[in-house]
Amino acid sequence: MTDTRHPGLITPDNAPRLTDLNDDSTPYPAQLTITCDFCPGEHTADYLVPAESTSTERFEIAREHLRTIGWSCDENGDFCPGCAMRPVLAEIQAEWMRQIAKWGVQHRKDGSDPFTYRAIAARSRQNFLDAEANGGATWRQALNGPFFEAISETDPAPLRKALVELAAVACAWIEDIDSRTAGV
Fold first, then answer.
1. Fewer CB atoms inside 10 Å of the end CB: C or N, the chain?
2. Is residue 100 part of a domain?
3. Residues 80/36, Cβ–Cβ less than 8 Å
4. Each residue of 30-63: pLDDT tens digit?
């Protein structure tokens, strides 16, 4: 008989027999989904879970398996293999959570001003393109474009897009700093 008393991912070797499922001490199958905290990625699988386990304990069984296939599941959150390779994202999430703990969830006016910043945004973007064409732009130049585009935008959809771009450039800059200072 196959041992069905060990919780974890259901495999052909540990799949419970129907007769075993009537035993109150036998773990039972449960489909669990873990979602990446940064991207829409998710992982769904069938697991054997103890009957008396809490939902937290059941999800930890799934997380144990996910860690074996490249996921990072710890106190910082659950990150798929693509996001787990980006420590800067976990660091940013931790800082964001620290800010929420300190200030609460914040709601403020955008403060965008197209009349003041639209021309600066266009000039910043052109300066970046000119610098790229002449040997490479600096990170400051790369960040200026999306920053001024964001603060010149009053429509929510383009504003959000510019803020995502701004955050992505900031992450790339941080990773570049980390690559230059690795081992220092």
1. C
2. no
3. yes
4. 899 999 988 888 999 988 888 888 989 989 999 9
